[in-house]
């Protein structure tokens, strides 16, 4: 018993020691994880007990638990508040105000003659240097709140220095031209250096814009064009050092835009040495391509940057056209550069950029054909084709700004083509271009629809773009009709085409025609029908076209009414969901059909195809037939409005028969008419009696 008691006491002591060991671990609140595993809590207790006893037995197997590694939470991106944006923009605004104030102050001093021109220029330079010193002292304080202000001060000193140099050399003539040139170059070097070290894109834009004022000083000094162009190229090339280092894309676009504009302005001032301008355009565009690819990053605004590359290069092609002499050489070189660039990009797998540069190569080729002046009519085809390609590329890239720009340009070209060019002669480039533009519109619509997934609300592409296509189509048809068919001003051929298009829209799916086109065509059909009611004074072939159009329109109305009445295809697929009064719709359709047939009868009288007496009798029969059909339809479907309309037309027909026809018709015609009317009346009475039963 004593031995068993001692054993139990020993076991209890071991368990107490194990519990103490566990308590110490909990107090330390540290978990030691080795080799990505952790031991089970009970195993640790057993190990501790075994160590206290000095037991040499093997320790039990450990139970391994996988370590759960929590993913570090990425902090949300900080977005500037409105107040922060205002604070960021205020220094720049006030610096601009300060510069304007200085300029107006100098103007005021000049007006009152307080200082001489030399003193004014010296004071302006002191202000520029003072801003540099102030910015340097503020930087030494190393306050984060002053960083934006220091950048603005550096930029303001640069702008004041450049403007002062230009004023001293050109306006006041107190600085020698070569001295002014040296000072301007020093300021430009200073601007490039601060742009590099300050890493501020707004400052870079400011520097490049102000630096491009120097070419006008050089032009004033009557420097050689080569030197001026060389300066623009060197300035643009030097700024690439800054753009590449700090990936300043917007500054690159602004620098390129103002550089090519500077080239164009300088050329317009002297118009000589065209080849040097061509070389400058090519070099600038090649540098743009290379640097753009260097700093390009596929991100949120990828489509915008791709669109900017395409638009700026397209602008370059346009500006080259303003230099008429041998511009085709520049287009050939640019086409080769674009093609080589596309081949190089294709090896890197950048398919979207290949599309951009490949399209530019194609446009450069088109411009080369225009520059060769192979045909004066070639531009009518190539210009819409170029804008069409630009729209297709914009849709593929998803570049909204590019889509808007090229769509507006495309619309302007189409409008100009419609207003200026005609469809005659039949075999002409102008006529062909009408058809090509229609194909462009259809291809754009099909391509956009192919990329779209679905639609919910009314959109421009789904619902309004089909209307634009049909509108352009009918403008072409009306022009074609007026040239080759209609001589009296009424487009009968176009009216027939309208019927075909309207019926086609009824059977085509909504995905193709949209939600609004059908209603637009129906309204147009109704307006044309109203124009068919009066008699048309036509002759020749148009007499037959007139009658055919009237009969076709009457048949179309009858067919639509029959489908609605019998609840056929159109009714079940489309009209049922419109929630309109079918009774009133049928009444209007019957009335419209009657009026159209009346118009046909009046036209037959004018054209002399049928005698007047026969037409009078036919009109009376038409009234009785209309009343009969209306009353018969109302008995089958319980249509109250149609029934009232039928009785009304029946009363009008009887009154016409008694008070008009009896006095105007001969005995033979009167007999035949009364026999026909009597038979129709008996048929009508029989139908009404059946409905009562």
Concise summary:
The chain is an all-alpha fold. It is built from 27 helices and two strands.
Record keyword descriptors for this entry.
693 residues, 2 strands, extended, transmembrane helix, DUF2339 domain-containing protein
The helical percent reads over 70%
- The largest beta-sheet arranges its strands as 1-2
Termini separation comes to 119 Å
Rg of Cα set: 44 Å
Q: What is the SS-derived class?
A: mainly alpha
Major sheet summary line: 2 strands, antiparallel
Shape: extended
Mean pLDDT comes to 79
Strand content: under 5%
The total strand number stands at: 2
Tally of helical segments: 27
String of helices and strands? HEHEHHHHHHHHHHHHHHHHHHHHHHHHH
As residue ranges, the low-confidence spans are: 31-39, 55-77
